[in-house]
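I am still getting used to backbone structure tokens and would like to learn alongside you. Would you supply a protein for us yourself, any chain you care to pick? Start from the sequence, derive the backbone structure tokens from it, and show both lines together. Go ahead whenever you are ready, and we will take it from there.
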Amino acid sequence: MQDVYRNGKFENDPWRVAAAGEPVPNDGRRLVSKPQLLELLASGGSIDATFGVLIEAGETLDDLAPALDRLALVAVNFAKFNDGRGFSIARLLRERFGYKGPLRAVGDVLLDLMPHMERVGFTEFTIVNEPTRRALAAGPLPEMPVFYQPAWSGDTDEAPVPAGRPWLRRAV
């Protein structure tokens, strides 16, 4: 069984990923692709708290909006660490679509990107990069004391914007 990093530690992950082309498992927590989920819904199937969806970079979210409040997990795949579309997907899920549940980053997740991922709303991570896994096992995430944009949640723990440098913010 794989594990997931959340709340500052690695935990067992109960989610089973249904690969493309495979039938959706009948039991347990099921993480399905967006096309699988939409096909299930179009065929009259129902989803409950045992379903999650895996969104690939470049996929749109509008057609998922009606189902988001019934999903127990939304995961976003980072196929390459230098593809920032997953950050935009997270921000849209949180701000435009109001998704409040767990948001997972999967794929090529690197240690130095994780604080940025948290700022846009990711709450958990499936990590395959061994140096990142070792660093997380050895200690907490690195802090990010200076950033360029407010966090998705409208954090109130931010210091006022410094005069003359409106793009710079610091955590209090």
